[in-house]
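We modelled the chain as a single entity of 375 amino acids. Its sequence is:
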Amino acid sequence: MTSPRFLQIHTLHSYTAALLNRDDSGQAKRLVYGGTSRTRISSQCLKRHWRTAENDPHALQRIAGYVDSFRSRELVTEKVIAPLKGRYPDAVVAVLEPSFQKLVYGEKADKGKKSRQTLLLGQPELEWLAARAEEIAASASDPKVAEMAVAEWAKTKNFKAMSENTALPGGLTAALFGRMVTSDPAANIDAPVHVAHAFTVHAAESEDDYFTAVDDLKRDDDDGGADTIQETEITCGLFYGYVVIDLPGLIANCGGDSDLASSVTHNLIHLIAEVSPGAKLGSTAPYGRADLMLIEAGDRQPRSLATSYREAIPHDIGVALDKMKEKLKAFDEAYATGEDRRHMCVDGHIDGIEKCSLAALAGWAAEKVKDAPDA
């Protein structure tokens, strides 16, 4: 086959008695698909757990060449201005802060932090900004001079300037999942990793869990019963997940370093299979690993296998696997796109596709990155 442009990653994950992703009312997120309500895990939730899994042996932070990033409304306050305080006159620092806030967050910055965009900046960008603030503070004789200096400097310096001397200006998180900066479109980074919302292949299964907290020191003559009575929703589900990696885009975002992009892909596949989303860890232990991971390498536009489950099926991994096989066969007969495939499956297998361990699957996918065409 030709050089692979895309990796498509399909998963089936099972979770029991958990509340993996909540909406604004505290209930499990849902969607209606094929006329049936399903439990859903948002792509934002999935991505956050993968990128913050710092203690996992395959954490992104453990990759050689990893560059950190920070997401906040307080980037200028904490990372640019705070290091100046106590070292330069308060009046000069006070003038610099609003000017740098406006440079980073745009025209709304002076309306307070709640009006600012929650922005993702990489460590190189923050260090660059901090160095410029330090230069101005050190050379300014009074607040007015500092204000004029930063205004003059800001005319020609923007996010593009921050990106000129580093391969990962926005950090590895932005290199994978992209970034949008409303104050400067030139700072936008296209996401090469595309993540779908995961959903249950069957109808939503949920129950309201009534629970109490008992006061251990309550005396017998006190009022009986529980000290606290609460209720929460718990769900069970077999989820279909889908991720696409645009390999040339990932390599480009890694500064053209295919070895780094290969390492990122290797670790990300482990994280997708092994890291569970979910809150309420102490009361639900929502830990599960993929029952199935199928990876396809090809050069044609990706296509999800979600339609395998347009009609809700029983909550059964065997049935779910059979439905995926049927859909895959139907697509192959109709389109004959010729993707190269490998899969990992805890129970069962997909005929005609090599089955291997997760470690071997991740290694195979990482090698595919090195065969990808240029962006």
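As a brief sanity check on the tokenised model: DSSP finds twelve helices and twelve strands in the chain. Residues 70-165 form one domain.
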